[in-house]
Amino acid sequence: MDIKANDEPVNILLIEDNNMDIRMIKEIFKEFKTKTKINSITNGIEALKYLNKKEKYQNEADPDLIILDLNIPLIDGFKVLKEIKTNGKLKDLPVIILTTSHNPEDFLKACKLQANCFMIKPLCFDEYNILLHHIEKYWLNF
């Protein structure tokens, strides 16, 4: 990802269906030194429409980073990830999997589908804060 000018936010697409997680992630990102703009989508169909600039998403900014939950409705995160990584226009977007799954098969499948990172959702705010600061450090500030 290219470093943006100091006044330009990093556009993050958060594909997550849990409203509590969405709210927490947005609150934590507000505290970062890196300016971010987070668009959240709650299901796989809308995520693919957003990424392909269909319907109401025609004028949305391209994401610089995607945070993707695997367990989302309508089209699961694996299918969204596969679409991203096999689409010539989208394949270079970094995708961080953020999931509750501890299943090694899910990790291997995400790796096979070329996820850039696989992280297990923390159970408390403080751990979420640490995890998201790691995302800022390693994915937003090259």
From TrEMBL:
Residues 11-136 form the Response regulatory domain. The modification 4-aspartylphosphate is found at residue 69. It comes from the Archaea. The keyword Metal-binding does not apply. SMART domains: REC (SM00448). Keywords: Phosphoprotein. GO terms for biological process: phosphorelay signal transduction system. InterPro entries: CheY-like_superfamily (IPR011006), Sig_transdc_resp-reg_receiver (IPR001789), TCS_response_regulator (IPR052893). Transmembrane segments: none annotated. This is Response regulator. It comes from Methanobacterium veterum.
